[in-house]
Every structure is written in structure tokens, then in C-alpha cells.
Design goal:
By secondary structure, this protein is α/β, with parallel strands linked by helices. Helix content is 44%, strand content 10%. α1 (11-24) packs across α4 and α1 packs parallel to α5 (83-90). The model is unreliable at 1-6 (pLDDT under 50).
Length: 347
Amino acid sequence: MVRDDQAALEPAVALRRIAFLLERALEPSFKVRAFRRAAATVDRLDPGELERLAAGPGLRDLAGVGEVTERVIREALAGEVPVYLRRLEATEGTPVAEGAAALRASLRGDCHCHSDWSDGGSSIREMAETARDLGHDYIALTDHSPRLKVANGLTPERLREQLELVDALNEELAPFRILTGIEVDILEDGTLDQEEALLERLDVVVASVHSKLAMDGAAMTRRMVRAVRNPYSDILGHPTGRLLAGNRGRRAESSFDPEVVFAACAEAGTAVEVNSRPERQDPPKRLLRLALEAGCQVAVDTDAHAPGQLDWQIGGCERAFACGVTVDRIVNALPADALLAWTASTP
């Protein structure tokens, strides 16, 4: 809960309060040091000089002040409780495990999973029945698109065959529902790798970058913005493309302007995925907080490629709760009909 005495926090006080809460949450020490360094820099300036810099030349030239800490300072100078601090305070006093469990209990389905039609290891039926047994009301079947040949991406013809199979399975498995979908590649120019007529038929479209992940940051930003503004895009999948471990090794985050991309997501009504795969944990928490500040909705998904992986959502819920995600921001906390109404209503 936000404390009553936070209404008029000085910038240095707000920065140190954030550092304190990050320390208590066992966040990485480099992140804590960033806020403490910024607070020390603010302490060395008189209030008039700090306000002059905020109004004119800017704060980023100050030692120890970066993108996030600058935003905190500006919001505090404006008499606001910084958004970053509000989100940390919202989780204060609730253990992460407890808060994550509450988020997980609110989820009605999973919007990103794969079957043996592309690079998954099990049949659509087995994935669906496992999701049902885990307590879900639905899953979105999102096998890969054609150009991702290494993952046996679905050609338009194969996707049409899959849609017929899903129709038949839904009759057998009702009231559980398999939502039709795709994880569609975001091509280098920002277009989507599937026929528009098919994308229009699908219930859920997860748009993800899988190629040229190390391209120039400005070009990647344009690529992602075009994709999330596509009227058929519902969810931006694993936004940075990073890999932390696993049999594919490690991979650095793609370079892009997160503020620009997340602003486009919020404007277009495209949710940002909280990818629960242990080797992805994507987006990183600093970027998930930026997405929330931009007004984005999120989807806490597993990106499961096997039945046992469908139980990975708790990992995503832990990161979501730590960043201040609330149930009302999670699209797959919606019942199936409400989720479909949301995907159908995106601009």
C-alpha cells in the first residue's frame, strides 16, 4: 500500500525509497546502486538547479542519472509519486510467492503454446487435455509460421488443416476450448509471416521476432512498431528475444527503443507477453515495468512446447507480481468469450 506521507517526496528521498524496496526484494545489486548513485547526485545540487536542469538542458548529463532515474526525478519534482515507486509499494508486505500464486489462480488460460504440428513434442489433444487438467478453461494453439522452417512452421495449407482438426477437438473437449492461433514471425520489414485472410480467421495472434535479432536498434524499433500496429497482432511475444541458458546457449537482448515500442503497443491495444520459459524470462523486469508505465496490457504465457511446460506460468506470475502487474492488466485472466471480444476489438 502507498504510504500517506509519499504525497510530496523529494526526488532523492523517492530514489532511496526505491533502492530500499529493491534491496528488500533481492533485486540485483547493480539496479540498487543505480538509484543510490542518482540520489547522491541529486543531493549535490540545490533544488533550484535541479529544477532548472529538468526544465531546460535535461538531467541525463548528470553523473549517475539514466533513463529510469530521470523519470523518477521528474515525477517527484512535479509533486507526483513516481510510477516506479508506486508499483514497488503496491507489492510491499506481500511475499512474492503469495502474490504470484494469487495471479496464477486468476488465469483462465494460456495464449502461447506449441504442438507437434510445428516444433512441439506432443499432439494438440495432449496439450489441450493437460491444460484442462491444470485448471485452464482454454489454451491458444500458436504453432509457428511458414518462414521459420527450422521449427516446421505451418504453411497456409497446413494451418487450414489444423483449423479443421481444432474444430473437431473442440466438439469433443467442450466446455474446454482450444482457441485457434499462431505465433507469427515478424519479418525484417515488420510485416507478418502469414496470409492476412488466415490471420483474420484466428482467435489469437502472437507476433514475435525470430530472425536477425542483432539488427540495428533503430531498424528493430521500426520493425517492431509496424508489427504491433498491425490490426491482426494481439500479443507481442518474448519482446527482447534473449536467452539466459538452455541447449540453445545464451543470447543477448535485441536492441530497440522500449518506450517507443511499448507506446505503440498501448496505442494499438497489443498486449506485451510475459514469457514464462525459464531460459527466456522475457521481458526483463526493467522493461516489464516500462511496459506497465506505458499503459500496456500483458499476457502471462508459457510458450510451452510440451505438456509439462504448461505449468510454467507460476514463474511468469512471480516476475509479473514483482513488477506490479495486477489482474486487470492480464488478458488471459479473462474468460474465453471476453478474451475473444478483446482480440476482435483491437484497432
